Amino acid sequence: MSQPADLYHRDFNAWIAEQVDLLRAGRAGDIDAAHLIEALEDMGKSDLRELQSRLVILLAHLLKWEFQLQALSERWREFEGKRWRDTIIEQRAQIATLLEDSPSQKQTLTDAMERAYPKARALALKQTGLPDDALPRQCGYAPEGVLDEGFYPTAPEG
User: Fold this and answer.
1) How far apart are CA 8 and CA 70, in angstroms?
2) Could you tell me if residue 125 is inside a domain?
3) pLDDT tens digit string along 89-117?
4) Dihedral sign computed on CA atoms, order 61, 63, 69, 75
5) Do residues 55 and 112 make contact, with C-beta atoms less than 8 angstroms apart?
6) In a domain? residue 126
7) What is the pLDDT of residues 59-84, one digit of tens each?
8) Which of 98, 91, 96 is nearest to 65 (CA)?
9) Looking at beta carbons, which pairs linking 18-24 to residues 24 or more positions away fall under 8 Å?
10) In total, how many domains does the chain have?
11) pTM score, whole prediction
12) In a domain? residue 5
């Protein structure tokens, strides 16, 4: 194993610093290109994982808001869903920051929501104790609505 590759496996941050120094010094030929490519690809995947993770939390709270807020508010007059609202606001802000920092992620938002929704649904079911058939199996929210600060879904009539 070469010295740069060995450093990559022993101390990733030191390896990054070394690669940056090599680039700044104009020594591109000395860069550990294979691991640099791998690290850059992992960075892109990491951003997508963070987006999906935040969407899971946001979607779960939107589901709880839509399908449980009214029942809990009727049972306990003081229940307003403040913590749910706070979490919704926080996740929207964090997702907005992610999308500002990486605008190309907007192109993956619909797919990320589709992948996040089953986990969000499962989380909402666990947290609420609602029966499995209480929440839709498919995401009924549009990406624009999910990110809209004024969007809070209302309970379905029935």
Assistant:
1) 53
2) yes
3) 999 999 999 999 999 999 999 999 999 99
4) negative
5) yes
6) yes
7) 999 999 998 876 665 555 555 677 88
8) 91
9) none
10) 1
11) 0.79
12) no
